[in-house]
Write a structure and sequence with these properties.
The chain has 227 residues and is mainly α. It has eleven helices and no strands.
């Protein structure tokens, strides 16, 4: 028994039946141990959820190396996080609203802040931009993960609404919807996410371009002194 083994078993349990399947009793059964053995590593379910969420971040960072371009470093980290969340949507729904305070999360925070410092942002602005980057990524992950774990029939009703109900609206009552009705069904979650990332990073790049030229390329220690 180890924390890592328990987390791995938890991810399998979540994948098999969603958040309602996660309990120390069911984990004990899956691991063929008395449930009380799990309390030696996690004092409660909430602590376990934080460990599960952080394990996804550790997985996201496997073989990661910062890019020469600071913007591509941030883009890569966003994509990596999203991939692991979409691979484990049940765990993502439990974890995206939490601050794990653990190594995986802290490593991602460190890397994004380091990239922003490389761009020349001082500490206050870098911290604010980090939160925007992270919150956008988590919001998309939470929304898309929650949709992916809906029963298939409910997914079909929601996606079908764009080509059914929305395509039949009265153009006099909803002229803008009617004008876009043929385009709405073709939009799905991945291209929408990519567009959001592009818009965000383009905006941050423009802010970096407006920094004093002496700020560009400074390392984190200097950037923290201010603009």
């Amino acid at each position: 028994m180890s924390p890592e083994l328990i987390v791995a078993a938890s991810l399998k349990l979540l994948q098999s039946g969603g958040g309602n399947t996660l309990s120390f009793r069911k984990l004990g059964s899956a691991l063929d141990v008395d449930p009380t053995a799990i309390y030696r590593h996690f004092k409660n379910k909430d602590e376990l959820i934080l460990a599960i969420a952080d394990s996804l971040m550790v997985s996201a960072l496997e073989e990661f190396e910062p890019h020469a371009d600071w913007l591509e470093t941030i883009r890569d980290l966003m994509h990596r996080s999203r991939r692991v969340y979409m691979a484990h949507p049940e765990a993502a729904v439990l974890g995206v609203t939490r601050v794990t305070r653990r190594s995986g999360e802290m490593q991602i925070v460190e890397q994004i802040l380091a990239a922003l410092f490389r761009a020349g942002f001082h500490a206050q602005e870098a911290a604010r931009l980090y939160r925007v980057i992270d919150d956008l990524n988590l919001a998309f992950a939470g929304l898309d993960a929650a949709f992916r774990i809906l029963p298939h029939a409910e997914q079909e009703k929601d996606t079908g609404a764009w080509s059914n109900e929305y395509s039949q609206v009265d153009a006099q009552d909803f002229p803008s919807i009617a004008a876009a009705a043929q385009e709405l069904p073709a939009i799905d979650e991945d291209p929408t996410y990519e567009l959001a990332v592009d818009l965000l990073l383009e905006s941050i790049a423009r802010r970096a371009d407006r920094l004093p030229s002496s700020a560009a390329g400074r390392d984190g220690r200097i950037a923290q002194e201010g603009p």
